UniProtKB/TrEMBL annotation:
<dbReference type="GO" id="GO:0006506">
    <property type="term" value="P:GPI anchor biosynthetic process"/>
</dbReference>
<dbReference type="InterPro" id="IPR019402">
    <property type="entry name" value="CWH43_N"/>
</dbReference>
<protein>
    <recommendedName>
        <fullName>CWH43-like N-terminal domain-containing protein</fullName>
    </recommendedName>
</protein>
<keyword id="KW-0472">Membrane</keyword>
<dbReference type="Pfam" id="PF10277">
    <property type="entry name" value="Frag1"/>
</dbReference>
<feature type="domain" description="CWH43-like N-terminal">
    <location>
        <begin position="18"/>
        <end position="143"/>
    </location>
</feature>
<feature type="transmembrane region" description="Helical">
    <location>
        <begin position="21"/>
        <end position="43"/>
    </location>
</feature>
<dbReference type="GO" id="GO:0000139">
    <property type="term" value="C:Golgi membrane"/>
</dbReference>
<keyword id="KW-1133">Transmembrane helix</keyword>
<keyword id="KW-0812">Transmembrane</keyword>
<dbReference type="GO" id="GO:0005789">
    <property type="term" value="C:endoplasmic reticulum membrane"/>
</dbReference>
<dbReference type="InterPro" id="IPR039545">
    <property type="entry name" value="PGAP2"/>
</dbReference>
């Protein structure tokens, strides 16, 4: 009888596969970057290839292709939608590793827990830096094409790293719910649960 009253009060407001969330999070900046690159390369070649110093860049920098209009607006919107899931993903990783750490002896757990916190806050700083680079205008133009190539390599490596999230959590779901049994979830909170 009591189980029926709990389930009648339960409500799931949002349920998404964590894998799907990660795919969307990855595809937003990747697709907008490709669109910005192609459209800027076709329609604004002079603006993206030449610096204020009149140095011609063979490969336009990410800053150049996302800094011209209208591409900057597409990039900013996509990054805005990208940031929220990145914070959730970082928090899930932290919780997941904290759960794994709880199975270690206490002597190893203390130092590893501090390292986990450092990694989490570095991840949050990366997300903050992405916001800063996206929304704070940069008037500096970096000469020579090596900077542009490095910028693309770093961005690609970062996106590739975040693909590993899908490999680490292939079957988990993200749930926003109220009134579910306390063994699985806390009221009004965001949690993940491994499904069979």
């Amino acid at each position: 009888m009591e189980g029926n009253s709990v389930s009648s009060k339960a409500a799931v407001y949002f349920l998404i596969s964590f894998r799907e969330l990660c795919l969307v999070t990855l595809c937003l900046p990747l697709s907008s970057l490709l669109i910005c690159f192609v459209t800027a390369y076709i329609f604004q070649q002079d603006e993206i290839h030449e610096t204020h110093c009149r140095v011609y860049n063979v490969i336009p920098s990410i800053s150049a292709i996302t800094g011209v209009s209208p591409q900057r607006y597409l990039w900013r919107v996509c990054v805005a939608f990208h940031i929220g899931p990145r914070v959730v993903i970082a928090s899930v990783y932290r919780t997941y590793y904290r759960m794994l750490l709880s199975q270690l002896p206490e002597a190893k757990n203390a130092n590893t827990g501090r390292l986990l916190d450092v990694c989490y806050w570095l991840n949050m700083m990366e997300v903050g830096a992405l916001c800063g680079v996206t929304y704070v205008s940069n008037r500096e133009n970096y000469p020579f094409s090596w900077f542009s190539m490095c910028e693309y390599l770093i961005a690609s490596a970062n996106m590739a790293f975040h693909v590993t999230v899908m490999l680490d959590f292939p079957t988990e779901k993200m749930v926003v719910a109220r009134g579910l049994p306390e063994l699985l979830f806390n009221d009004y909170s965001l949690h993940w649960k491994k499904t069979d």
